[in-house]
């Protein structure tokens, strides 16, 4: 700008000089050097004007950049303030999390203590279970002893009954003798009658006690019979259920094998040939054969014979415990075999 002002001043001086020279006719015309200088100064003035315009444009662009940078600085300051707020919030969150972590650690300690106490309780419960198992075993032994004693008491009852019958026969014979000797022995009649009355009272008391014992033993025997019948029926029912389950599982395996062997298209073709649906065709495939029905009939007859055999054993005279035990064990072994077969079939099905 200073150079521009200097150049403009020089131009003004030159113009003034040229004007003064034009007015004074006496003065000679301007020289060539002055014109060349004028041209040079004009060129410099143009160049300086061009530079000034360039500089002004660069200044404007720089101002715009400065404004953009100031706006950027303001945005960054706003972001920094926001980040400071976030940092403070995160610090508060970290402190809160630390407090929660301490609380969780304390809760974990308490839970560990409760777990230890629960483990102790579990151990005590396991010990109680083992003790109960031992007590159950002892009760089973007592039950076996009671059954043996029951059989012994039944034998004693039969013996007492036989003795009572013998005593009844003796009493009848004595009464006959008393009637025969009644005429000859009038003096001994009173004493004999007293003795007979005493014996009758004693025998009546003995009979009452024996009748009470007999009633108790009959009740026990009836309870035992009902228990055995219910047990045998339940065994037979469970065995039948297992057989039906095994048959159903075998049927399902056969149907699956048929379905695997036959494709979907072949099943549809067979259904269309028979003029039935695919579900009806599957039911036809699931129908039992004659051998299976005959087998089920034989098994049903065997179960019926087994129940009749147990009924005969219960109605028979003692001892019959060993035969009854053998029959029940036979049915239990059959049930065990059926359970193993059913479990193996279910494993294959899975």
UniProtKB/TrEMBL annotation:
InterPro entries per UniProt: CNTLN
Q: Could you state one GO cellular component term attached to this entry?
A: centrosome
The chain's coiled-coil residues are 136-191
Q: Where is the composition biased (Basic and acidic residues)?
A: 1-17
Region annotation (Disordered) maps to: 1-38
Keywords for this entry? Coiled coil
**Any single GO BP term:** centriole-centriole cohesion
Any keyword Transmembrane helix?
no
**Protein name as catalogued:** CNTLN protein
Q: Which gene encodes it?
A: Cntln_0
């Amino acid at each position: 700008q200073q150079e521009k002002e200097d150049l403009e001043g020089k131009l003004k001086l030159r113009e003034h000089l040229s004007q003064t020279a034009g007015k004074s006719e006496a003065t000679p015309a301007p020289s060539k050097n002055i014109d060349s200088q004028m041209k040079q100064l004009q060129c410099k003035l143009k160049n300086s004007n061009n530079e000034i315009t360039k500089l002004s444009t660069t200044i404007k662009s720089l101002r715009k950049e400065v404004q953009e940078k100031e706006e950027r600085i303001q945005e960054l300051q706003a972001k920094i303030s926001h980040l400071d707020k976030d940092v403070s919030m995160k610090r508060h969150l970290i402190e809160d999390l630390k407090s929660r972590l301490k609380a969780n650690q304390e809760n974990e300690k308490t839970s560990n203590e409760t777990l230890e106490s629960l483990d102790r309780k579990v151990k005590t419960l396991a010990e109680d279970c083992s003790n109960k198992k031992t007590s159950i075993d002892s009760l089973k032994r007592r039950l076996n002893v009671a059954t043996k004693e029951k059989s012994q008491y039944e034998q004693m009852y039969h013996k007492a009954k036989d003795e009572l019958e013998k005593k009844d026969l003796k009493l009848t014979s004595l009464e006959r003798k008393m009637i025969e000797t009644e005429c000859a022995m009038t003096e001994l009649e009173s004493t004999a009658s007293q003795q007979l009355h005493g014996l009758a009272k004693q025998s009546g008391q003995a009979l009452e006690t024996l009748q009470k014992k007999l009633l108790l033993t009959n009740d026990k025997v009836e309870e035992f019979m009902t228990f055995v019948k219910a047990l045998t029926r339940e065994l037979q029912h469970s065995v039948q259920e297992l057989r039906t389950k095994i048959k159903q599982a075998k049927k399902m395996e056969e149907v699956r094998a048929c379905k695997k062997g036959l494709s979907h298209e072949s099943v549809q073709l067979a259904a269309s040939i028979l003029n039935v649906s695919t579900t009806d065709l599957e039911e036809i495939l699931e129908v039992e054969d004659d051998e299976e029905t005959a087998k089920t009939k034989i098994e049903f007859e065997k179960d019926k014979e087994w129940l009749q055999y147990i009924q005969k054993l219960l109605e028979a005279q003692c001892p019959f415990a060993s035969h009854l035990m053998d029959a029940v064990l036979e049915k239990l072994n059959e049930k065990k075999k059926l359970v193993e077969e059913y479990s193996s079939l279910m494993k294959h099905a899975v």
